[in-house]
Design a protein that fits this description.
Two copies of one chain form a homodimer. Chain A has helices at about 15-30, 35-40, 45-55, 55-80, 85-105, 105-115, 130-145, 155-170, 175-180, 185-205. The first copy, chain A, is an all-alpha fold and about 210 residues long. The first copy, chain A, has two domains: about 10-55, Homeodomain-like (Arc Repressor Mutant, subunit A, Orthogonal Bundle), CATH 1.10.10.60; about 60-205, Tetracycline Repressor, domain 2. Chain A is globular, with a radius of gyration of 20 Å. Chain B binds a DNA duplex (18 and 18 nucleotides) through helix 3.
Chain lengths: ~210, ~210
DNA sequence: GTCTATATTCTGATAGAC
DNA sequence: GTCTATCAGAATATAGAC
């Protein structure tokens, strides 16, 4: 009889390293995290990190790709109802984005840096779970314009606006806390408010009847 | 007769290092840039970097402060008219921001990285040329709320919104060009549009009478 | 697979000749 | 002021015993 493998609760060394790395990279970014720190956090020996992942860079890429995939996967579930009104979709999108960034405040910076590194191969997943939702959203948007519900607008603007309103406070968070003299708790609470406000603002922008 | 010094076209070693450093730090952030890289890019010897600037950190701070000071100085000129309506101010702010980012599209990424490097001491200039404008803007904003022209709103939101709408497209530019299949020219043209659109959107958000 | 010990590389900084 | 050579330390990566 073969030795049983546990694919559900994977507490293998490999998985332990990945979990610790995910947490650290996500919180602190690539450069600030040291391999010894990852080894310590996952309770494994430093040498095993290279045994399993060849290099810190490779580990980083794997972990972040998984982060991004998980996010997209979740987002695709959030947007799966094709009967949702477009503003309901935007509201769900904002909520899911903000919940993710609250837990994972470095993800935004990672993505922005990856974009500027011309590493946006990371976004060309062969099996991008968001592709369908994105296409549906675009179609729905064009239809709303045709029906006169939305003032015609260059897609670059609507994309910039939705993403900008959601993501920017997280990118600027450390400065905002300092400049506006607010606590982490107040920041989080303001982000909760934005879940409702952003769809309202977007609606106002698009001059809905 | 003393040797003439050229203070207008300063091609001194010191200046060459600063220019190369400015470009690299702006593109890649503090940690990702190595002193050897700066030396190579400026065509000088590595030792001279420390000779002139004592340390990488010191060089970074000087360069960063200059970048930011130039921007803030320009912005303060733009916002100098206290009789401007608050939405005129926002329009001028958007224009100046966008013009800066068009020339220096990496400045945004640079600032965001600096913020997350906990190097935002750099923003605490002793002689911040924007301080007065910022205070005036805040006062004007509060007054508009008192007068019922603007729905009361948490300052974190208005700050996030203005900066987010202006800056995000530049942060996401490489992805946007690819995802939306648009040219650099079309992007630039859309950014020109935003100079007018952003104040309109902000106005809509704030439910002006 | 896991560990200890160590090799190797990278990086900021400096000493000292010119 | 500028260069060559090099140090000191940190950090990544690997060899080899178990």
């Amino acid at each position: 009889m073969a030795k049983p493998t546990n694919k559900i609760i994977d507490s293998s060394t490999e998985e332990k390293i990945k979990e610790a790395a995910k947490k650290l990279f996500t919180q602190k970014g690539f450069n600030a995290v040291k391999t010894r720190e990852i080894a310590a956090a996952s309770g494994i020996n430093l040498a095993l990190l290279n045994y399993y992942f060849r290099s810190k860079q490779k580990l980083f890429e794997i972990v972040m790709a998984e982060n991004l995939f998980a996010f997209k996967n979740g987002m695709s579930n959030v947007l799966n109802d094709d009967h949702d009104d477009i503003f309901v979709k935007i509201e769900k999108m904002a909520s899911y984005y903000i919940d993710t960034l609250k837990v994972n405040p470095n993800l935004a910076l990672f993505v922005v840096n990856a974009i500027h590194d011309n590493q946006h191969d990371i976004f060309d997943d062969k099996l991008d779970p968001l592709q369908k939702s994105r296409n549906n959203f675009a179609k729905q948007f064009m239809k709303s314009i045709e029906e006169g519900k939305i003032t015609p607008i260059n897609p670059i603007h609507i994309l910039s606006n939705i993403i900008g309103l959601i993501v920017m406070p997280f990118l600027a968070k450390p400065m905002m806390l300092k400049r506006l003299k607010i606590s982490d708790k107040e920041f989080t609470s303001a982000m909760e408010e934005r879940k409702k406000l952003i769809p309202i603002w977007i609606k106002a922008m698009l001059k809905i009847n």
